[in-house]
Amino acid sequence: MIIIGEKINGFIPKTMAAIEAKDEAYIRQIAQGQASGGADYLDICAGTAPAIERETLTWLIGIVQDEVDTPLCIDSSDPQVLLDMMQLVKNPGLLNSVSLEEGKCEAIFPAIADTKWGIIALTCDKKGIPDDPQVKARIAAEIIKKANEAGIETERIFIDPLVTTLATKQDSLSSFTEAISLIKKDFPEVHFTSGLSNISFGMPYRKAINMQFLALAMAAGMDSAIMDPLSSDMQATLHSTAALLNQDEYCMDYLRAYRAGLFGTKPA
Q1: pLDDT-based confidence at 265, cuts 50/70/90?
Q2: Burial of 250 (0-12, 13-18, 19+ CB in 10 A)
Q3: Model-level pTM greater than 0.90?
Q4: Residue 266 pLDDT
Q5: Fewer Cβ atoms within 10 Å of its own Cβ: the N or the C terminal residue of the chain?
Q6: What whole-number distance in Å separates Cα of residue 46 and Cα of residue 85?
Q7: Which residues pair with 157 in a beta bridge?
Q8: What share of the chain is helix, strand, coil (3-state, %, to 5)?
Q9: Residue 225 and residue 5: Cα distance in Å, rounded?
Q10: Residue 261 CA to its chain's centroid (Å)
């Protein structure tokens, strides 16, 4: 599993409080914690008003890159902001996100074609987020085609089929996993990711839903997650599921994570 650490995101109340207070120590702490927890990328999202998004992202990127060497996943709905922030990043990571909303692919793809940057692609277009897995698959195919035509290999693309909230859509999981199956059939090299906590919004005891969603989505072919690597519950779910799916030879990753204290009781 490719872990994208979710904690440096202004939509999280504690992180927004740190951004507003310019609490550099807190940003350093969660950057280091997520890196130590095995994050392959650190998502960085300002979560602020557009007028100060560039300023906020610049501040966050500077602190995080000074603290850890983990590649970054720059998160903005504005493609020009993504392009501007790319110039501040030391090593190529991920751009979150592109979609078929007007102009996004056209702005991003030429700029990253000859680089090692990857992208997170959302299965939505100018009509919004579809419920139908067939439509999600069609959108994904169109984005992948545009990327390939621009010289971006399929392996650099992370498709997010945009899981809906369980509280409002009972078939949110089955729609998500069906979309993965349809897309994977035609594009076996593409990655799949998701913001795990979206599915549990509005529900009590959200972590129970998030944990089961992670396990079931991994079984369906999801190989990446935007998640909290500081959560021992999520770490336990991820490593145990990988072992059960025969993705962890001799359970070595599970054992290493346990011995490192990522979940369970750390041995004396």
Answers
A1: confident
A2: exposed
A3: yes
A4: 59
A5: C
A6: 12
A7: 119
A8: 50, 15, 35
A9: 8
A10: 23
Pull the structure tokens for residue 130: 């579809």
Tokens representing 171? Answer: 């078939």
Quickly list H helices, 113-251. 133-149, 172-186, 206-220, 232-244
Residues 73, 96: contact at Cβ < 8 Å? Answer: yes
Length of the chain: 268
Angstrom distances, CA of residue 258 to CA of 41, 120, 240, 246: 21, 30, 10, 18
Among residues 111, 137, 108, which one has the least CA distance to residue 125? 137
What mean pLDDT comes out for the span 32-44?
Answer: 97
* pLDDT score for 268: 44
Closest CA to 43 of 64, 22, 14: 64
Cα angle value 112/116/120 (rounded, 5°): 70
Residue 136 is encoded by which pair of tokens?
């999600």
- Residue 165 neighbours by CB under 8 Å, 6+ apart: 172, 198, 199, 200, 201, 202
d(CA 115, CA 126): 28
What contacts 261, CB < 8 A, 6 or more positions away? none
